[in-house]
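Running co-folding for adenosine-5'-diphosphate.
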Amino acid sequence: MKNDTSIFKKILIANRGDVALRVLRASRDLGIPTVSVHSTADSDAMHVKLADESVCIGPPKSSESYLNIQALISAALVTGADAIHPGVGFLSENADFAEIVNAHNITFIGPSPEHIRTMGDKVAAKQAAKNAGLPLVPGSNGEVKNLTDAEKEADQIGYPVIIKAASGGGGRGMKVAVTKKDLSESFSSARSEAKAAFGDDTVYLEKYLTNPRHIEVQVFADAHGNVVHLGERECSIQRRHQKIFEECPSPILSSEQRKRIGELSSQATKKLGYLGLGTIEYLYENDEFFFIEMNTRLQVEHPITEMVTGLDLVCEQIKIASGSKLNFKQEEIVFKGHAIECRINAENSSTFLPSPGKIDTFHPPGGPGVRIDAIVYQGYKVSPFYDSLISKLIVYGKDRETCLLRTQRALEEFIIEPIDTSIELHKKLVCNKDIKSGNYSIKWLEETFLHNA
Ligand code: ADP
């Protein structure tokens, strides 16, 4: 395979699922050979079948395979990989892993361990964001150690408040106290959930915004001081704080608001001295943006930004990690059209219960503007061990209306049988009047759509 010798010789992909496949495709497009790793449960996975080399790193349990740092480093050394892409989830936001990778003279495709560490601790992240000029959700000044302090803070902030885990992620370790009466229970349950999920019961308090939207900005920085933003994504359609349906651009921002938040995000990225791809997440309410966190990795929903900007974010990420300069300036980035991503999970569309099992029929949609990033194929067995995301449907249209109609058409063509999938949920979503008008907040899916279903 022909390879640009100034970039990496071989990339090990320390992940599974759609992101492993996505990194594999980007590496291929750059002419770089890949090494896939897999657990014994994933030996038939697409990221294994398509890789140049693959290494089995352990049994199905993630803690013994995809989270096994020793096994991953050994696989990289044995295969001669000079870079590791951590993907999304698993070790992608583990600063120790990034440090260990770098210590073996292997490039970690991501930001510095220091940035991962700061942004991974949400209390430290809020402080860093504040220093970088970003507006915060009003809240406690750092960690809240006990109920007495929590009561004092909550009185100052004003109810409702949300208690959040400093090490939180994936929507876990968050509890709302609507009034003072709920605080004691919410405080202790947030702490115990945080301890169980992250091994750290540090929590902090924030004002609980009642009807915000989740809007995030994609930023990108090289090691030569160049920073750009790649516009925003609207990710308000969530269940249990997990994104389900995303759009780019947001249907409600004016061009002035878009410009304001984009520029603010790039300036902050520059002040932070950040390197690589990152996403700054905000809650947006009444024309105000409030920083909630920065994700120091690729996002699941990155393809909608790719559709609208025409850029390949993963190829660019790999090039930047190898020391290349950003080869486009902010003013050269053209945002064109509209894109939607539907996350297709192996789960029931009404009960949301997981639905693992063998796929007998897999018929993906096609036609103009339709992209499928799927890990499944006919005969593939969806494993009960991992995340239920089995496919992403990404649709592009010259405007939002065209995009919504196309998404509907693509969903109608899409067949995955006999397991349950969220295709059914998305079919109902795309023709819903609130989705069509763009009139929704982070509460809409659970409190309006599912509530009335
Ligand atoms: P995680 O890292 O677990 O994903 P985030 O801080 O990114 O946590 O928040 C995830 C989601 O939780 C947000 O998109 C939003 O729906 C909700 N959320 C977080 N903070 C607040 C808040 N202060 N008020 C209302 N909703 C919030």
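Result summary
The domain at 11-95 is CATH 3.40.50.20 (Rossmann fold).
Residues 180-198 form the longest helix (19 residues).
Job closed.
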